[in-house]
Write a structure and sequence with these properties.
This protein is of the alpha/beta class. It has a domain of about 240 residues: FAD/NAD(P)-binding domain (3-Layer(bba) Sandwich). It is built from 17 helices and 21 strands. The strands form five sheets. Strands 1, 2, 3, 4, 5, 6, 17 and 18 form an eight-stranded mixed sheet that branches. It has a five-stranded parallel sheet with strand order 7-16-8-9-12, covered by helices on one side. The radius of gyration is 24 Å and the shape is globular. The structure holds ligand NA7. The site of ligand NA7 has 20 residues, from helix 5.
Length: about 550
């Protein structure tokens, strides 16, 4: 087979692409990764802004598929900083000799299905054309940075930065007047670090976020040894919990709405002391009842009021018009306390909107702020942005971006009808961003590898009806929760004109895994292999464990 004839073309050399390559190689298949960057790491390659760090604990945010790797690698902190995660990914790529099959600095611009040959033609920005039986889009969920257009940007005489495309050499803000636009996770992580260097820091906030303290600390060797001694069981437990990490399963049977408020606060206090994303997994009704949710929301608001000295600033930092957790929850290290420093200030751009960028800085409706640097911490065109930029054409030349114009359409988040032999790792309508990404990546990569092995020289694609039912099911599950009550990137709200549809699967990581396994075990139910539809049909509701007590709460919420 020549270099331009592949079994599998993989797009992206992040956690997904690397494991996919390793797995396919072990099956004796010829696979190549095409990667736009000049190194491995995906999101951890690009997001080098100060303070970038994972919000899932290090010991769980790592591959589980090689015991020696898992035992030998040493994480230094509870939550890994970006440089350490990047070191880890490079270590994995070198340890398993993966780089020889990665084409770096090569962006895939198009993938066209050739129905006569049953192959994909993959085109790169270097003008290269490659033919592959299968394509795996390992393109990540947050890989297209969102840079809103502000009028007058070209006039600005200082420097501008985008958190999602941070310069590799780093940025020294010492003595500078810095403006940060955005208050999502990237801003919440970077603001305390930028504030340490800057002479002045002005934060422009459109929507305040809920952040839970990380209580980050160096990992002590004893804890690490304990985890490593029990790693198998811990990984198994993570796979069995709602969001793919330990502590994401609701711990209490009781509903918060049926308990005395003091008892609920006591529990939230314990979770606050523990820190991190397990906070919301306290009671089963927190994610569906606005009343229960508001207990958590008010608890967090009180903590913000305690942490921020100036009452006016504290109130501005308190999210009040959407439920806790409905936008991606943030994990912070001294974010709120940063606003207690005299040289740090907050501007509410709802009250005084940004009118334009000027030669000197940012002009709002009432003030012109002068800056040496402006940081855009404005997020991503999540889940679909990167795929939409690639010219993906399936049967009869149909474009994926056109098919998805009103929102993504997938079966299990793994494939889209009319695009045979093209897989998505953590695609829309799979648990993806609602879960520990590594757990979901491993599950998808293993499922896809097995599927490719089973299909062999054939062709697999989802049935339109199965896809439609899956999309309806994911929408139904989302509508049962409080997620739609916030404007979030989960729903595409941050990108003007993007259709509003919840883009991840909320039915739980273990339930989802069992469905995918069942589909494979039942002759790829919902798919057609070589034109023959499988006999079996997936009923997702059979896999869900619906807590009947929540139904009246949902009905009550909807009625209100
Ligand atoms: P996010 O969470 O999408 O945050 C982006 C921030 O930028 C957010 O506060 C936005 O306000 C703000 N934003 C976006 N566009 C504008 C415009 N036009 N004007 C003013 N402010 C704007 O992205 P992050 O990079 O912080 O985090 C993404 C994920 O990475 C995170 O959830 C973790 O999973 C890791 P908005 O809230 O839309 O009003």
């Amino acid at each position: 087979m020549s270099d331009t004839e592949l079994d599998v073309a993989i797009v992206g050399a992040g956690f997904s692409g690397l494991y996919m390559l390793h797995r396919l190689r072990k099956m004796g298949l010829k696979a190549t990764i095409f990667e736009a960057g000049d190194g491995v790491g995906g999101t951890w390659y690009w997001n080098r802004y100060p303070g970038a760090r994972c919000d899932i604990e290090s010991m769980e945010y790592s591959y589980s598929w090689d015991e020696e790797l898992e035992q030998e690698w040493e994480w230094s902190e509870r939550y890994s900083p970006q440089p350490e995660i990047l070191d880890y990914i490079n270590h994995v790529a070198d340890r398993f000799d993966l780089k020889r099959d990665i084409r770096f600095s090569t962006r895939v611009e198009g993938c066209h299905w050739d129905a006569d040959a049953n192959r994909w033609t993959v085109m790169t920005d270097g003008g290269e054309t490659v033919s592959a039986r299968f394509v795996v889009m390992a393109t990540g969920c947050l890989s297209s940075p969102n840079k809103p257009d502000f009028e007058g940007e070209a006039d600005f005489e200082g420097d501008t930065y985008l958190t999602g495309l941070w310069p590799h050499e780093g940025v020294d803000f010492t003595g500078q007047r810095v403006g940060v636009i955005g208050t999502g996770s990237s801003a919440i992580q970077s603001i305390p670090i930028i504030a340490k260097e800057a002479a002045s820091l002005t934060v422009f906030q459109r929507t305040p976020n809920y952040a839970i303290p990380a209580h980050n600390h160096p990992l002590d060797p004893e804890t690490v040894s304990e985890v490593k001694a029990d790693y198998h069981a811990i990984r198994d437990q993570a796979r069995e919990e709602a969001a793919g990490f330990v502590g994401s399963k609701t711990e209490h049977e009781e509903l918060a709405t049926e308990l005395p408020p003091e008892q609920v606060r006591e529990e939230l206090e314990k979770r606050w002391a523990r820190g991190g994303l397990t906070f919301m997994a306290s009671y089963p009704d927190m994610g569906v009842s606005l009343k229960a949710n508001d207990m958590a929301a008010e608890f967090i608001r009180d903590k913000i009021r305690d942490r921020v000295e100036d009452p006016e600033t504290a109130e501005l930092l308190c999210p009040k018009d959407y439920p806790a957790g409905a936008k991606r929850m943030c994990v912070d290290i001294h974010y709120y306390e940063t606003f207690n420093q005299d040289h740090v200030s907050l501007v509410d751009i709802n009250a005084t909107p940004i009118e334009r960028i000027t030669a000197k800085g940012v002009k709002t409706s009432d003030t012109e702020y002068a800056f040496d640097s402006i940081v855009f911490a404005t997020g991503f065109d999540a889940m679909t942005g990167t795929l939409a930029k690639i010219d993906i054409r399936g049967r009869r030349g149909a474009k994926l971006s056109e098919k998805w114009e009103a929102g993504p359409l997938t079966y299990l988040g793994l494939m889209s009808a009319g695009f045979p032999n093209l897989f998505l790792v953590t695609g829309p309508q799979s648990p993806s961003v609602i879960s520990n990404m590594i757990v979901s990546i491993e599950q998808h990569v293993e499922w896809i590898a097995d599927c490719i092995g089973a299909v062999g020289a054939g062709v697999i694609e989802p049935l339109e009806q199965a896809e439609q039912e899956w999309v309806e099911h994911t929408n139904l599950i989302a509508s049962m929760t409080v997620y739609p009550y916030a404007k979030s990137w989960y729903l595409g709200d941050n990108i003007p004109g993007k259709p509003r549809i919840f883009m991840a699967y909320l039915g739980g990581v273990p339930q989802y895994r069992r469905m995918c396994d069942w589909v494979a075990e039942n002759g790829y139910a919902g798919f057609a292999v070589d034109g023959s539809p499988a006999n079996a049909k997936l009923d997702p509701m059979e896999f869900l464990e619906v807590d009947e007590r929540l139904l009246p709460l949902i009905a009550e919420r909807e009625a209100a």
